[in-house]
Design brief:
The complex is a heterodimer of chains A (about 140) and B (about 110). Chain A has about 140 residues and is of the alpha+beta class. Chain A has one domain (about 1-140): START domain (Alpha-D-Glucose-1,6-Bisphosphate, Chain A, domain 4). Chain A is about 20% helix and about 45% strand. In chain A, strand 1 (about 1-5) and strand 2 form a beta hairpin. The longest helix of chain A is centred in the last third of the chain and has 14 residues, at about 125-140. The radius of gyration of chain A is 17 Å and the shape is globular. Chain B is built from five helices and three strands, in the order H-H-E-H-H-E-E-H. Chain B has helices spanning about 10-15, 20-30, 35-40, 45-60, 80-110; strands at about 35, 60-65, 70-75. Chain B has a three-stranded antiparallel sheet with strand order 1-3-2. In chain B, helix 2 packs across helix 4. Chain B starts with 7 loop residues before the first helix and ends with a helix. Classes of the chains: A alpha+beta (about 140), B alpha+beta (about 110).
Chain lengths: ~140, ~110
């Protein structure tokens, strides 16, 4: 039912849920519903809209995740940036109808420092670096 | 072995700089090198290379060894482990959120 691929650059979680895509979509896009399973938020499913998720602050983390809506395709695809602790990634939800309900896929990818100037024009791509990271670690075991 | 573990945030920040990343990658690839050897083909001044090395050293990504008048540097890739752990923790976070989402969807039926 649940699968996690914890690679260095992309995190994918997939589950089959016995609920219609339209219903899952509501849970992913209505702030009051999102707050029940994820975090307090002011999300609005409109491309270009900036919003934030807020959790209770903990030591070394202010509890705020800054986001910008990138894709809204009801009830199939939703993507937003996810920026926290100086790291930016993109969270993409894909809902695929199945006989029993919906296949829900969440992909979080592109972890990188959110100071864009740092890596633009770089010869060494951050992505490539992360791709090599596991390999490098394995070779030093 | 590294004695301390840097935070993922610190590691991302240090390695977010392409010049530092290039220095670290070169050390990981070529083994131990001096500041001079690192400076020569890089197009970066020696003081700048030294500064980058100091920052890499501060988070445990490079280790230095003094020999005569020269300091030799090598990469310590195991210091990258917190980055890998961090992604793993994000996985645990999302799995818990998925459980909560399924609970909510059940309640929405009622």
């Amino acid at each position: 039912m649940s699968e996690t691929h914890a690679e260095t650059q992309t995190l994918v979680i997939e589950r089959d849920m016995p609920h219609a895509p339209e219903k899952v979509w509501r849970a992913l896009t209505q702030p009051a519903l999102i707050a029940e399973w994820l975090m307090r938020n002011d999300l609005e499913p409109r491309v270009g809209r900036k919003f934030a998720f807020r959790a209770d602050p903990v030591p070394n983390w202010n509890g705020v995740i800054d986001c910008e809506m990138l894709e809204v395709e009801p009830p199939a695809r939703l993507a937003y940036t996810w920026s926290s602790m100086g790291l930016e990634s993109v969270v993409t939800w894909t809902l695929t109808p199945t006989q029993a309900g919906t296949h829900v896929r969440m992909e979080q990818s592109g972890f990188r420092p959110d100071q864009k100037a740092n890596y633009q024009g770089a010869n060494y791509g951050w992505r490539n670096f992360l791709a090599k990271l596991e390999e490098v670690l394995a070779s030093f075991d | 072995m590294t004695l301390h573990r840097a935070s993922p945030e610190a590691l991302f920040k240090i390695l977010g700089d392409p010049t530092r990343r290039a220095i670290f990658e070169r050390l990981a690839r070529e083994g131990e090198l001096t500041v001079h050897a690192l400076t020569r083909p890089s197009g970066v001044s020696q003081p700048a290379v030294s500064k980058h090395l100091a920052m890499l050293k501060a988070v445990g990504l490079v280790i230095d060894r003094r020999q005569g008048r020269e300091t030799h540097y090598r990469a310590e890739p195991s210091a990258l482990a917190p980055l890998v752990d961090w992604i793993g923790q994000m996985g645990a976070f999302w799995n818990e959120r998925f459980d909560a989402l399924e609970e909510l969807l059940k309640r929405m039926d009622q």
